[in-house]
Write a sequence for this structure.
């Protein structure tokens, strides 16, 4: 039990008559790279939204988060900002950046939960405010170096190319230093080179920064090469779970991805 | 990322650090010279003062420009409010300008073409009060994205607190009324922000407008209960004054009756300017630290902000509280400066005026609020002068027959022009000008 960082059971999210996620169970091992795959509309993002507190699942669901050295928390009793403070960070499929602000501000916002400057201290720019601000910038420095963002620090995020924006968002969740990092299609719309870089960054997060990675990805090739454990969703149902090699040979997975007739033919 | 070979980046890589003395010297000069000029007011001709002013402006701008850290900046240097040569240069110029302005305005001087010199001082003081209120309004509406029409309600709250604490309790003690108004403004502001937790955009606008009318009702009841139809008198025996135990301070020269009453434009300037500058600096500091960044995050994407660990509800209420506290303080200042507040001192038109100020000045820019209120107050003065004095224009009867209507029309027309061609307002225009000056200076080389 103790090596599980996240477990969810009987997780159902319903929009009107549509069950976007239907009674899904899953267990994420600490330090592993857990991949969630499935065709469009399978309910992958909904599942992440339910875990991070944006959507409320139907009663009967359980989501437990177990930070290292701390008691297990029931995430369903918390609001999104509290879940973030417990150590769960996530990125968005269509970027959750603040486009008008520059890269530095966006990254510094990732340090929000680690800084403790109050409004009045900030306004008076007291010694304490300066101390926290310096600490935040030093923490950002490492992320900037890792992700090669130094050249863009003062640029408004909205003016940057898409691949860089994706990196900035990844940098922001790294700056939060979460225990569980949930990445919603971090490689969507990227070139092959950029994908290679992103894979390297994800490895760094997992190995050097000791984060558990929960990855949603479309690109089967990427998932098969880097994931420790794969879960496949289709139409809100969990259709298979296991190691990447098992999944590659699973008929239901092939059917979901390629269509039934193709698989038969 | 490969390093691009270009002269500019090589120039940047030359590391330079000014000594601590060099860092502060331009600002020390900018702060000292005005008082040296001021202490010789009677003897020195206006034109000499103007000449000295221009020379000192050029000198401090140049010093601040040259003595700026260059090259790879440390975090501490990168964090400074005035970081680039251009920032530091303009900061020195502004410091000098703000300090020298009252001495120039107070000097005996007949401008060419009967330019209305004497009225300028009053306008400058009004600009200071409005800049403070508009900056706070912009922090809420522009920067935090919480549309509110309750602005004038907090000016009224400032007058109420000024009336209760400053007039009824302490007989003209504005110094106590100011923090009291800030406190009351913060508490009432947070309450007025409660609808923001559920409503956005137009709906929030309507909810806060409701709050405006509630506050107007409170204001009228308060007036009738304690002051009747004459309104509150903040002048005369209620004027703010410097307590006698502070008369030893330099520059405090008590009047014949042994009191130092804040009256007249010159003395008011020295009260209003520091308060405005400090409160604007406070807001600028908030914006560049943790909670201020959270305001912007909540404005842009509240879901994304909450997943960064920001308590969106708390952040919105904080923005309301901060803005309302500063606006209430500016309400106290306006009451004591203008001298009386009556039944019809606050109306819906004033909300629109502040909206014009922040739109013209530049949405979501605190600097823009200063430009906006200067625009708002100086423009009518210029129009008035043009109608009465300017060659040809003064002969057009139509203009002097409908002065206020034409003022309003021109103002409205300019607002439309600015919105169409410069959506980031005067602050954006100023940024362009600054950029142009910096570039043309850089081309010539330091």
């Amino acid at each position: 039990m103790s090596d599980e960082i996240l477990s969810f059971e009987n997780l159902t999210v319903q929009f009107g008559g549509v069950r976007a996620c239907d009674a899904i169970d899953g267990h994420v091992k600490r330090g592993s790279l857990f991949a969630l795959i499935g065709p469009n509309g399978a309910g992958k993002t909904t599942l992440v939204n339910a875990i991070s507190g944006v959507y409320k699942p139907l009663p009967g669901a359980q989501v437990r988060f177990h930070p290292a050295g701390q008691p297990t928390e029931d995430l369903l009793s918390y609001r999104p900002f509290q879940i973030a403070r417990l150590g769960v960070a996530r990125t968005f499929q269509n970027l959750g950046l603040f486009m008008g602000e520059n890269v530095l501000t966006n990254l510094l916002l990732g340090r929000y939960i680690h800084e403790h400057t109050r409004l009045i201290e900030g306004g008076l720019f007291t010694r304490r405010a300066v101390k926290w601000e310096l600490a935040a910038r030093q923490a950002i420095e490492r992320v900037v170096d890792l992700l090669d963002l130094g050249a863009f620090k003062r640029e408004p995020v909205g003016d940057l190319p898409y691949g860089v924006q994706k990196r900035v968002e990844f940098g922001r969740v790294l700056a939060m230093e979460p225990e569980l990092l949930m990445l919603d299609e971090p490689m969507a719309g990227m070139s092959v080179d950029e994908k290679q870089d992103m894979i390297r960054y994800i490895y760094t997060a997992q190995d050097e920064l000791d984060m558990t990675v929960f990855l949603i990805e479309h690109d089967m090739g990427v998932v098969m090469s880097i994931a420790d454990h794969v879960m496949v969703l289709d139409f809100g149902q969990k259709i298979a779970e296991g190691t990447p090699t098992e999944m590659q040979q699973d008929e239901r997975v092939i059917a979901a991805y390629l269509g039934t007739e193709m698989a038969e033919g | 990322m490969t390093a691009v070979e270009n002269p500019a980046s090589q120039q940047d890589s030359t590391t330079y650090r000014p000594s601590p003395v060099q860092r502060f010297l331009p600002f020390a000069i900018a702060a000292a010279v005005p008082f040296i000029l001021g202490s010789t007011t009677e003897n020195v001709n206006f034109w000499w003062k103007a000449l000295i002013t221009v020379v000192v402006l050029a000198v401090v701008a140049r010093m601040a420009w040259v003595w700026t850290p260059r090259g790879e900046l440390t975090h501490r240097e990168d964090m400074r409010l005035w970081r680039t040569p251009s920032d530091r240069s303009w900061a020195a110029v502004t410091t000098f300008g703000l300090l020298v302005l009252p001495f120039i305005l107070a000097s005996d001087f007949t401008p060419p073409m009967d330019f209305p010199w004497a009225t300028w001082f009053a306008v400058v003081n009004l600009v200071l009060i409005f800049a403070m209120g508009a900056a706070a309004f912009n922090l809420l509406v522009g920067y935090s994205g919480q549309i509110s029409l309750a602005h004038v309600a907090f000016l009224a709250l400032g007058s109420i607190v000024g009336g209760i604490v400053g007039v009824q309790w302490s007989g003209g003690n504005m110094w106590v009324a100011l923090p009291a108004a800030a406190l009351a403004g913060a508490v009432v502001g947070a309450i007025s922000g409660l609808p923001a937790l559920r409503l956005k955009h137009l709906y929030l606008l309507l909810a806060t407008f409701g709050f405006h009318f509630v506050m107007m009702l409170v204001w009228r009841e308060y007036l009738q209960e304690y002051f009747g139809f004459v309104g509150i008198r903040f002048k005369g025996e209620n004027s703010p004054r410097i307590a006698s135990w502070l008369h030893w301070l330099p520059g405090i020269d008590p009047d014949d009756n042994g009191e130092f009453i804040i009256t007249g434009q010159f003395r008011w300037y020295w009260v209003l300017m520091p308060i405005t500058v400090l409160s604007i600096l406070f807001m600028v500091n908030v914006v560049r630290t943790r909670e201020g960044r959270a305001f912007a995050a909540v404005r842009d994407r509240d879901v994304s902000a909450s997943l960064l660990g920001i308590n969106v509800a708390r952040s919105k209420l904080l923005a309301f509280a901060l803005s309302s506290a500063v606006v209430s303080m500016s309400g106290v200042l306006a009451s004591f400066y203008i001298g009386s507040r009556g039944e019809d001192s606050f109306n819906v038109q004033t909300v629109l005026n502040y909206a014009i100020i922040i739109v013209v000045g530049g949405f979501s820019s605190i600097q823009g609020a200063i430009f906006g209120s200067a625009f708002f107050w100086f423009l009518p003065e210029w129009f008035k002068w043009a109608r009465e004095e300017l060659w040809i224009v003064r002969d057009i009867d139509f203009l002097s027959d409908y002065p206020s209507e034409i003022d309003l029309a021109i103002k409205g027309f300019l607002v439309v022009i600015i919105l169409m061609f410069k959506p980031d307002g005067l602050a954006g225009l100023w940024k362009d000008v600054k950029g142009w000056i910096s570039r043309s200076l850089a081309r010539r080389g330091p």
Notes: Chain B touches chain A through 32 residues (CB under 8 Å). Residues 117-143 of chain B form the longest helix (27 residues). DSSP finds 18 helices and four strands in chain B.
